[in-house]
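User: Structure please.
Assistant: Input sequence and predicted structure:
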Amino acid sequence: MHIVSLILALLLGAPQGGVMAGTRTGVIAGQVRLPSGEPVAGIRVAAMEAPEMGNQDAAVSTMAGLTTTDATGHYRLEDIPVGKYFVVAGSLDNLSYYPGSITVTSVAPTENVDFSLSDSYEGVIDVRVHLVGAVTPVSRSDVRIRSTSSTFSRNLETNDKGIASFSGIPYGDYVVSTTMILMADALAGGSSSAIRRDLSVTVTINPNRPKWAVSLGLLRPGVIRGTVRQSNGTPAADVSVSSMNPGYQDGRRTLVSESTTRTNARGEYELPASPGEHFIRATAEADTFYPSTVDSTAAKTAGVGNGEVASGYDIALVRTSSIRGRIADLPADSSPPSFVLVSRSGRDAVVPSVRLPEAGTFEISGVPAGSWDLFAVTGSGIPELHQTGKVRVDVDNKDVDGVMISMNAVELRGRITGLGTETGTVRLVPVDAIDGALVDAVPGLEFPSPEGEFAFANIPALRYRVEVNGLPPAWYVADIRMGTASVFNENVVTVGTMPLAPLEIAVARGAGTLQGTVDGITPNTRLTNARVVLVPDEPRRQNLLLYRTATIQANGTFAMFPNPAPGSYKMFAVSNLPAGHAEWNAEFLKKYDDVAVPITVRPNQPTSIKLDLTPAR
């Protein structure tokens, strides 16, 4: 309750309240006059608890007594608990305070607390707007103060020193604010349609604290500058340059673009970037990361401060080579093939520039040094109408000739057992990064027949994990077998050129239920990206089917869905789980080993657990 509580009480005419038996009380008495000296009759007077004031916050105050002046302007506030108080008189639009606080004792009445209704105000709020983490002032920033209990408000623009000073302010609670643009919109140029939010703080002006110095720190984009050059040292004009931040994609560490620009005729770039460390990527025939590497794990970062300019981040484009060859057994009526390069590490996929000199032949340019799987893809429409071929190519800064790709048509048949009359879907999901036409060739969802049978045709030669979805709440995947061998612990099916053994997915009834509460959630904590994470123990740690996450409700409760399979797990609650299934990444999980709690999910049994919220690391 702030001063607004008192104002509402004055308006509603709340009577002077009682106190608990045994409480030591005292009396405050005095007279209220007009500025001319004449007594004021019939005006409400209240005793308001004088709280301890922080450095920059609204004080919490409660009303201890309320009365009305008599015909001579005198008032008497009785049964006021011992303590320190402000005495205030007036109406909503014109409150006046006795100068200073009053200390009430039970020994004798506090008398002669006389004061006049004010026609002028002494409150002062000095606001300084600056960049976060620095003393750099922000000039021409619009600053507003707004009363929380009346229509009083003012606007000022900061001067060259980033200062806006407000004076003559009535006592009360005030919201002090300035506008900031979300970082994503600021990086995009801060258009008129950008979302703007107020950076604000609430302060209390009263006789004990009539003057405030408020500091508002803004986060502004910085600028990263540099020059991009070809591998021979000449400027690289009109090349795309991006600032990249670490992220996750299906549990793999990846880089996510934050902002992009292009080099000028001299190869120079100027890139807006949020404060912090960034990877810088230049894209010509191939991606090159600062200072000069195609391997993002070997790249160095560029650092920029809040609103600062960082220069000298020059990039030398890597040398690229060409791959020339032929597709064997390509039908004459086949559609022109597309090509995708997938790094043997599984981290990167590239759609290269291709020339088709004649039917069945190809020339791929712009290939950086490295070990690659080269895919050729033909067909269009549904995945089953595509055909793919794959060959390994090692590029070592020189052209590669005579490459031969054979097209393959690999089929995977299987069935789900144990479902009875229930239904579900089966899907193959690539483990490694892919792109381009290869994405179109990956099989889609399969709906098993009433007998539980399914088939995937023309599967590209990749590694896959098996996803089973749509099971009823009590059901779970108990085993995955290729022929006679279980692949459940890893859940990886490797497709090559040879025929595949049948895939059998065993489903069972008896999943457990898991719910609980998360403690340690401080007031005003944003839970939008907070999650509870369930991680299977070894040897099932690689099976992504078994992982679960749950959102945390405002009251701290959570419930896992789909219901987890029986087994042993680790659990933790984190304030911010990065997008892209970071919980599938082993390095990410290591950060939370010390807070992960062991738990056992038993068949058909409910399990409840209490966790502490861990700040994101």
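Helices lie at 3-12, 183-187, 437-441, 586-590.
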